[in-house]
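User: structure tokens for this one?
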Amino acid sequence: MRHYDLPPLAQLEAFEASARHLSFTKAADELALTQSAVSRQIAALEEHYALPLFRRLHRALRLTDDGQHLYRAVAEVLSRLHDASLELKRERRVKTVVVTTTPGFAGLWLIPRLPGFTARRPDVDVRISAGYELVNLNRDGVDLAIRYTDAQHAGTSAQRLFGDVVFPVCSPKLARDPARPLKQPQDLRLHTLLVQHEHEGTDPLQDWTIWLRAMKLDGLKPASTVRFSMYDQLIQAAVSGQGVALGRSPLIDDLLRQRKLVMPFETTVVSPRSYHLVQSATAARKSEVQEFVAWLREQIERDIAPAANAPHSGALTSPMPRSGASTDPMPRSGAAAKRTPPTARAPGSRARAGRART
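Assistant:
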């Protein structure tokens, strides 16, 4: 003997949809059936209970009292069954970590290190979305955002990861070009400057402004400029010898260590912007997301902790090759700091940090 005296589930689904829409036609559309098939399901259900569930009026459909009673019960049971099914599917689905960030951070820093996390958690599907548009994390299903901005615009929930310093960089071959020396900052007038530029009508050297101003070269006019919308593309152009770029440490530290890029001048300037981490409302409940955040902080602590303690924006820094993590306290605002990227100096360049300091 069956434990439950119930009609087939297909009949109950047809009844619930018909009762909700008060239309066999609309129920058929929802269930991808024909109207006659739905009508047969309802007729079979009425035969099972031996009573009418609908009053069939002229071009209208109404529930009987018995039909209303059954509809309330069936709707509740199907809804609970639906929720339980979704929960079971969620438990079996692939775990994901969705990260949105800038193309420069993704291409130059995050992606080269990503195999370290995927080797640790091969069961987690990491999805990187690189772009400059701000997304709504909760609405768009994004777990984490790593944003490059100043403290004022970072948001109250943002956690600062690290800052950066800026300085000119170029390929070793370009630095050795005898026809266009790069001995002092003024020599940039002989070269093509690679510029990240997004909007027409703005200063063509906008991203260079902070460094040129620190060198008292506000009016410098380069031989030419090449504009890029993506920072990682700009750096690739510098690696291939197409001009001088404004490097951002720690993003390009690996390229300096590999001597794919060199620093023709000693002086660096602290950027007013930093990298900040923003988490979605659901990120705290996803263990895989929190493990990714912990891994990210491990990479920062290991590779770029000195940059995280850089002085305030606009301060000049003098170079000192790094041989390990520094434990010096943060300098006061405006003070010089001996914290810089792993220096790859151009052949023949001379130290001018003290001369440029203001």
